[in-house]
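TASK: fixed-backbone design
INPUT:
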């Protein structure tokens, strides 16, 4: 996953899995339960990988998957989101507009005292919309069991555009331990610099 070891994205045409969805199910994570129910009932032609894998196998299979489901979990962010990007698998996220919050990828969690958190507070700041590198699925689509229909309807040119964008920015989502390229730390410094200059 380190930039020095990365030789480029596995081409889309060489990926045999349409969707990777090996997430855990918990009673309080309602979106996950709904997504899994839909995928279990899916009878279409697209290949779905939902089996539990060890970490090494997971990373390998991410590089063989076009899309990776990153449903809301216990935290406002998910490791799966980063693993998918670093493997050039397009993250599929659940998005909702919540009153007094705005756009969020973390809204369907039933914990006492927990409130939805806006997107900008969940993931790193970027100089491009995160929608450029993810597939956003509306919460209502999840509720109606329409995830696969939505993914299957995405034009190939849109998939290719997101894939190419991910290839160009993936190093911005990892800390380069060798300092060989601009990385997540570089992005953090840029953001701090912007804040300081703005305050001056």
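OUTPUT:
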């Amino acid at each position: 996953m380190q930039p020095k070891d990365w030789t480029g994205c596995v081409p889309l045409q060489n990926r045999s899995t349409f969707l990777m969805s090996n997430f855990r199910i918990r009673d309080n994570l309602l979106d996950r339960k709904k997504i899994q129910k839909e995928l279990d009932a899916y009878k279409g032609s697209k290949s779905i990988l939902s089996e539990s894998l060890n970490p090494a196998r997971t990373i390998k299979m991410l590089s063989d998957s076009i899309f990776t489901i990153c449903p809301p979990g216990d935290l406002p962010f998910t490791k799966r989101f980063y693993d998918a990007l670093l493997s050039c698998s397009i993250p599929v996220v659940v998005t909702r507009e919540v009153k007094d919050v705005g756009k969020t990828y973390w809204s369907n969690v039933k914990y006492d005292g927990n409130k939805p958190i806006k997107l900008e507070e969940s993931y790193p700041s970027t100089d491009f919309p995160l929608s450029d590198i993810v597939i956003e699925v509306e919460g209502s689509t999840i509720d109606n069991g329409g995830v696969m229909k939505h993914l299957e309807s995405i034009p190939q040119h849109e998939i290719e555009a997101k894939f190419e964008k991910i290839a160009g920015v993936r190093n911005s989502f990892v800390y380069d331990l060798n300092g060989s390229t601009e990385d997540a730390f570089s992005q953090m410094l840029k953001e701090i610099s912007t804040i300081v200059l703005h305050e001056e």
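COMMENT: The chain has one domain: 3-173.
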